[in-house]
Amino acid sequence: MDWGKANRLSQLIKSDGHCFFLPIDHGYFQGPTARLEKPGETIRPLLRWADGLFVTRGVLRACVDPANSVPIILRVSGCASMVGRDLANEEITTSLDEIVRLNAQAVGVSVFIGTEYERQTLKNLSDLVNLCEPAGIPVMAVTAVGRELEKRDARRLGLCSRICAELGASVVKTYWCENFDKVVEGCPVPVVIAGGPQCETEMEVFNFVHDGMRRGAIGVNLGRNVWKHKQPPAMMKALHAIIHKKATPAEALEVFGKEAG
Cα separation of 79 and 88, whole Å? Predict the structure, then answer.
């Protein structure tokens, strides 16, 4: 691995081998989603516990303080919305010049395996790797499964993750599932857990994150279960304890309680 790529990854993945990424890229297809209407205000009290921020270039420029940021993973795929015909109909939106100009430590792109746009989005990933690898910029593949893979089980998510790794992704983001170790064992690059829809309780979040870490994930890329919560800083601190301090779900709940007051 080239020095530049290794250096960028070392800023995102800490010395313990773990990472906590905070995604706020949801507006690229949802618009001003609830509690993310003003992204800069939402993330300000949360960044102290984040190892990386997953964000689009527009929000990065408009809402993120360049003097008080964390390493950036730049969302570089898009061109579809939740009111359009199919969210999977994505293209690459950002040039290499722009990625370098914004000093991104990595880039992220969605792939929709099992959809009409499977080939197109896998080609997006391949093209992005071809573009970024010579510049030493890591690519995170986001396994946004389609209708045919709506059931998120280890066989299907393992398929998605392995294909992304085979095409050159440096990191794969995928959903937690039962027997998550089978997904990790079949993927030759590091795996981070996607947060998915908002859970009903704090313990539900702590349990799946703890289980995923125990089964081989290096960290999480988790947004809605933090910034949609009534106590976002408390959720960040508790999850940070699981990821970087090996806290159990019960211990994380104690951290949450103390921080939430």
Answer: 9
CB-based contacts of 123, cutoff 8 Å, min separation 6? none
CA distance 28 to 148: 23
Q: What value does the mean pLDDT take over residues 65-87?
A: 94
Residue 151: pLDDT band with limits 50, 70, 90: low
AA letter at 244: H
Find the catalytic residue in 5, 38, 123, 173.
173
Average pLDDT, the chain: 95
Calpha distance 93→97 (Å, rounded): 12
Q: Select from 244, 167, 251, 179 the least CA-distant residue to 212.
A: 179
What residue ranges in 51-201 does DSSP mark as E strands? Answer: 52-55, 72-75, 77-78, 91-92, 106-111, 139-143, 171-175, 191-194
Return the pLDDT at 148. Answer: 53
Total-model pTM: 0.96
- Give the amino acid at 236: M
Token pair, residue 202, equals: 């704090």
What's the distance, Cα to Cα, between the start and end of the chain in Å?
45
Q: How far apart are CA 52 and CA 43, in angstroms?
A: 12
**Residue 237 bears catalytic tag:** no
Given CA atoms 55, 60, 65, 69 in this order, what sign does their dihedral have?
positive
How far apart CA 20 and CA 193 sit, in angstroms, is 10
Please state the rounded mean pLDDT for residues 215-231: 97
